[in-house]
Design a protein that fits this description.
It holds the Pfam family GyrI-like. This protein is α+β, with helices and mostly antiparallel strands and 176 residues long. It has three helices and ten strands; from the N terminus they run E-E-H-E-E-H-E-E-E-E-H-E-E. The protein has one domain: Regulatory factor, effector binding domain (Multidrug-efflux Transporter 1 Regulator Bmrr, Chain A, Alpha-Beta Barrel). Helix content is 18%, strand content 40%. An eight-stranded antiparallel beta sheet has the order 3-8-10-9-5-6-4-7, covered by helices on one side.
Length: 176
């Protein structure tokens, strides 16, 4: 709540001391935000603890390891637990996940609860995801009339381009 009460237009990027995250206006974020309901998702997952900068390489390892479970209906997602702007970077937690059939016999499966979410489509370089998420939290959310619920945020990947280190993804922030 404290973070939401302080108007801001930029902030340092914790992963790169040479960069600052410069935010869009609330209206620019609002133009790309939708409110959606998401069903529960059954996933195989691996927990990542560390600097979020390292998630990209862990994703590629995860995809290579579980490629036999990939099909045209697979949803790739991550569930993030920490805000790297306020959490010690080596302590950030994220579950790297992909949907699987409920009869999957792996031990590392779980349900991720659905519900109501604000959704923002991100299309760009992986290094710029932090700036977008922080802008939504710092600029749009405080004046939106919505409040983040006590669930974890999700990033659902629509396209990953390993060569250019870019993605198209939907950023899901749980609301009440």
């Amino acid at each position: 709540m404290f973070k939401q009460s302080i108007p801001t237009h930029s902030m340092p990027v914790p992963f790169d001391t040479e960069r600052a995250a410069n935010f869009k206006s609330a209206e620019e974020y609002a133009a790309q935000i939708e409110i959606r309901e998401l069903n529960d998702l059954f996933v195989v997952y691996e927990r990542f603890i560390g600097n979020y900068v390292d998630i990209e390489k862990h994703w590629y390892q995860f995809l290579d390891k579980y490629k036999a479970f990939l099909n045209e209906k697979t949803i790739l997602l991550e569930r993030f637990f920490n805000d790297p702007a306020i959490t010690d970077m080596p302590q950030c937690i994220c579950d790297i996940c992909m949907t699987v059939e409920q009869d999957c016999d792996l031990d590392n499966v779980m349900w991720i609860g659905g519900g109501k979410w604000i959704v923002y489509q991100f299309d760009g370089e992986i290094k710029d995801i932090f700036e977008t998420i922080q802008g939504i939290f710092s600029v749009w959310l405080p004046g939106s009339g919505y409040h983040m619920s006590r669930r974890y945020g999700l990033n659902i990947y629509r396209h990953i381009d390993r060569g250019s280190h870019s993605v198209i993804m939907d950023l899901y922030i749980p609301i009440s």
